[in-house]
């Protein structure tokens, strides 16, 4: 499996506003996500815990799904997909609007991963202990499951060659499906009544820090292979998430405050270094350095 990521980051960006055709692969079937985040990366329980311990809890956000009538649990008038009557969810990384120029386009306001450098389109936590396994193995999971990759979508809509070798790797570690995902990547909230109001916030993209911390805490308190949640561990993680003041979380608010309409020109956007590096974000090496390393 080999990919050419330079000038792309299609898997890190919500590029639907600049796609010539509809991209709806995440919203098919009876359990469409309640949020409108494109290509959310599901983190494992251990990854969520590590983010929280490092102070990055404010850069995380949940995903829940709508279920057919009578097949889930109703909260805020919405039927939520559930396991044993408890709301099911993922935890991923937030995607604020950023001024990015993928696929040879001019700088444009598009939602992008909180950890993506808008200038180089490289991940600021690549090659660190926080780099998610799902990102490290992409698009391997798609290839194993024989599903179209984001690389191929970019090729189809914007040209070029991104997926240079489509041989599925045989050493994937993060492909958690079915019962193996429960408590390890797919979490359940033990107290649906605590989520009153939160589902409405999620659908309106107005989650509060308290809303996000509630899900992050439950994820950290979860037990792999079970719907059980350690209340004390969840409470500590919730509190630590609310205390977090990471550069990534603060940059989300900064970008939200200055962003133009999604898909509009971002030529007059602030310098990304002033928004992210000035707040403590690590700089990325640029693509010349990557080429020099082979």
TrEMBL record:
Taxonomic lineage of the native organism: Archaea, Methanobacteriati, Methanobacteriota, Stenosarchaea group, Halobacteria
Species, as recorded: Haloferax volcanii (strain ATCC 29605 / DSM 3757 / JCM 8879 / NBRC 14742 / NCIMB 2012 / VKM B-1768 / DS2) (Halobacterium volcanii)
One Pfam family recorded for the sequence: DUF7531
Protein name: YkgJ family cysteine cluster protein
Chain residue ranges for the region called Disordered: 263-294
